[in-house]
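Reminder to self: keep the SMILES exactly as supplied, no canonicalising. Ligand is nicotinamide-adenine-dinucleotide.
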Amino acid sequence: MDKQFEGKVALITGAGSGIGRATALALAADGAKVVVSDINVAGGEETVSLVTAAGGDAHFVKADVAAAAEVDAMVQETVGRYGRLDFGINNAGISGGWARVSEYPLDEWHQVLGINLSGVFYCMRSQLPYMLEQGGGVIVNVSSVAGLTGLAMAAAYTASKHGVVGLTKAAALEYARKNIRVNAVCPVFTKTPMVEAMFELDPTFEEKLKRSIPMRRYGTPEEVADAIRWLCSDAASFMTGHALPLDGGIMAG
Ligand SMILES: NC(=O)c1ccc[n+]([C@@H]2O[C@H](COP(=O)([O-])OP(=O)(O)OC[C@H]3O[C@@H](n4cnc5c(N)ncnc54)[C@H](O)[C@@H]3O)[C@@H](O)[C@H]2O)c1
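Structure tokens returned for the bound complex:
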């Protein structure tokens, strides 16, 4: 039987680790050719090896999503190599440090906003013209539960992820009649290197956070990747402008 994404091309930022890597593996398993992009060369190349070992087709492109010119080059290289761009998975992000608003370091504010929010804007801005030209496509932006509700001590992260939800909705409206769907996923704490680094700072934090999640567990990168895979698929053909929580029930409370 044909795989559902046979002939499709996906570009995934931040695919050298965590959710991005799991998404690269999931889309490739369904037949998509994947461009794995990351600022971290070793991580990106490891993801390519994992995809290839599983029988998929992947190619690494180094790019810093906070640099618009690098993002343009990344998208051009994707289309140059594989001839099209069907799925733009704009996932690269950082957490930033923990501090009250009045004490939040200015350089860190700009860094978090530059990667998490401007980075997603630069990606969409580069990806959409190709999707328009080929007559369709799907964008999935990786926001967070912190894009739907406030996370104390993480103003830059919260603002950036709310911004991603807003950007997703604006673009969804603009391209709704162009066969381009734009959605966001909003995971709660998911066990990836980003979150493990937080737990190392305070070992009691892990248990405290778990208790705040109705299902009393963290999500896995594979669970987020499955939602992204579904949003890319024709099963989600009437869904655009949505911010989908993957949160063990936390947003229901
Ligand atoms: N893990 C969670 O609990 C969680 C929850 C909600 C949302 N998210 C979001 O999911 C996305 C992926 O996070 P993750 O948990 O897999 O983290 P991760 O740290 O495992 O992976 C993030 C990847 O992004 C890359 N990256 C960082 N800055 C970059 C830049 N400027 N340009 C290109 N690549 C860059 C890193 O090198 C890394 O490979 C992020 O946007 C994050 O905010 C994560």
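Points to follow up:
Helices lie at 18-29, 41-53, 68-82, 106-134, 155-175, 193-201, 205-211, 221-232.
The CA atoms of residues 101 and 155 lie 6 Å apart.
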